[in-house]
């Protein structure tokens, strides 16, 4: 079976993506309404979240940052400061506004632990990538396959609830949302042909299993048949031995 995959060593040799566009930090409720209005003017919105990392077992942190982007602007909503105001909830729940992200189910789960929100109108890029025979699931790998550039992950485990976010943190957060838009547009355009990709190759059985794909060379597992329990008593197959009657024995003795 053939699929499109890429390894970390190949990605490490690629040039790093430089984010383009304007980044807007939203840390006050008074800034939310105008930001949402600007987002609604875009035909596609890139989506992502960031959570302060936890290094203690059992510790759970809240979602710190919500990133929503258009082609030219990215808005970073600092949820630990402003919560999830109504205009944001309405945007996330609007089925007529196209929003794209990767591993969105995990983001929704994290948001719904703290807020009442039912996201709608989302496109899952992992599922979209599968339709183009891309076996990878991470944003970094899918982006590298399509564009030959590396999304740096150096800021992923930083403190997203710091009093102020560094420029490197803001660029990292914005880039993830922008990258989702670019992947969506490129795949939707039909310009990507997996069979002409330099990363199109035949998977070994082990590679297929590592990517969650059952190798075609392996036959399906046979269904287990129910085995009837046999009785522990053994039945004799020989005929029962006939016992001579006492009168018959006496007759034989007299004849002798």
Summarize the structure.
The protein is of the alpha/beta class and 256 residues long. Helix content is 35%, strand content 14%.
Descriptive account of the structure:
This protein has 256 residues and is of the alpha/beta class. It has a single domain (2-210), classed as Nucleotidyltransferase, domain 5 (2-Layer Sandwich). The protein contains ten helices and eight strands. The protein has helices at 8-12, 32-40, 79-82, 86-93, 104-112, 125-130, 139-147, 167-189, 205-210, 246-255; strands at 2-4, 22-26, 45-51, 63-69, 73-78, 99-101, 122-124, 200-202. The strands form two sheets. A six-stranded mixed beta sheet has the order 2-5-4-3-6-7, sandwiched between helices. Strands 1-8 form a two-stranded antiparallel sheet. Helix 7 (139-147) crosses helix 8 (167-189). The mean pLDDT is 86.
